[in-house]
Design brief:
Structural class: alpha/beta
Protein name: 3',5'-cyclic adenosine monophosphate phosphodiesterase CpdA
CATH superfamily: Metallo-dependent phosphatases
Order of helices and strands: HEHEHEHEEHEHEEEEEHE
Keywords: Hydrolase, Metal-binding
Strand order of the largest sheet: 3-2-1-10-11-12
Strand content: 15-25%
CATH topology: Purple Acid Phosphatase, chain A, domain 2
Low-confidence stretches: 1-20
Largest sheet: 6 strands, mixed
Pfam families: Metallophos (PF00149)
Shape: globular
Number of domains: 1
Bound molecules: fe (ii) ion
EC number: 3.1.4.53
Helix content: 25-40%
Organism: Paenibacillus solanacearum
Mean pLDDT: 93
Length: 299
């Protein structure tokens, strides 16, 4: 029997064992910015409930192995905002595995230990599956409303270095709030990235095999490749009501954008986005076709 035939037989056996399909699905939410709206009209508060409640339900209704928020889940990180979103996840997310990485807005008002006590989340951690290593990191400063750029503390950076080294050739999917400098749209601008003195790109560059970096913060869809990494930045939900669906299958990773088609939710998004504090609608947030889908076949 030729070695080619042997390869084909082992491929068939492996495919059969894995059901020839997608092995892991993740659905990812960009900056959500659930706001407390202290002085808002009753009408605007009702619009808030319908939009954010509707979006969370739509998110959790998507069947996936992991549901991930890329941070800025709340607008100011106030207790009442954090409690609303995490109560909703608990109430509507039975059977779902929800993972939140911190965004700068989430960390504006209370210490991170208090946020994590409300959310029940870890600040940074990893999950190893058969197909990939999922890594979730914290790139935020603590209670600093003036400097909204990113940083990664030395202890976490050392941990990340080790996780990436141990991943060897296995694909890594790394989730964080802030972009890597000079990669996705606007990440060349001050505070629209992890500050260069904390840049984790040198750690990422050392990884062997493919890597995927998912971030938010800049409120624009953008997908770029840098060496053996693909970087996927996702727009804010109020600008572009949509989620990213990541599918990991044998030898392939793909990303697509699932748009929310409900006209009422789209109307509410525009209305709220124009009428809330600490949020500015972003022109050009949708991006081009190349910022919406990605398919990478691993050789
Ligand atoms: Fe944001």
């Amino acid at each position: 029997m030729s070695s080619k035939h042997n390869d084909f037989m082992s491929f068939c056996a492996l495919s059969e064992a894995k059901g020839m399909g997608i092995n892991m699905k993740l659905v990812v939410m960009g900056d959500f910015h659930y706001p407390r709206m202290v002085d808002a009209s009753e009408e605007l508060r009702e619009a808030r409930e319908q939009f954010f409640g509707g979006m969370l339900k739509a998110f959790l209704d998507i069947d996936a192995d992991y549901h991930v928020s890329l941070g800025d889940f709340t607008n100011e990180g106030m207790n009442e905002e954090l409690e609303y979103v995490f109560d909703r996840i608990k109430a509507n997310g039975t059977g779902r595995t929800f993972i939140h990485v911190l965004g700068n807005h989430d960390a504006y008002s209370i210490p991170k230990t208090e946020i994590l006590a409300i959310s029940g989340q870890q600040r940074y951690h990893r999950i190893e599956t058969e197909e990939a290593v999922l890594v979730f990191i914290d790139t935020t400063k603590e209670m600093d409303r003036k400097d909204y750029g990113g940083e990664v503390d030395p202890e976490q950076a050392a941990w990340l270095d080790e996780v990436l080294r141990q991943s060897a050739d296995k694909p890594v999917l790394l989730f964080a709030h802030h972009p890597i400098p000079n990669t996705t749209k606007l990440s060349d601008k001050p505070m629209l990235h992890i500050h260069p003195e904390y840049d984790i790109w040198p750690l990422m560059a050392k990884k062997s095999g493919r890597g995927y970096y998912f971030c938010g913060h800049n409120h624009m869809n953008s997908i770029v490749q840098k060496d053996h990494w693909h970087l996927v930045q996702t727009a804010a939900c109020l600008d572009i009501p949509a989620f990213r669906l990541i599918e990991v299958s044998e030898g392939q990773v793909s990303v697509e954008t699932i748009h929310i088609e409900d006209p009422k939710l789209l109307e509410l998004a525009a209305h709220i986005g124009q009428n809330m504090k600490h949020f500015k609608p972003k022109a050009g947030a949708l991006g081009e076709d190349a910022d919406l889908t990605l398919t990478v076949v691993h050789s």
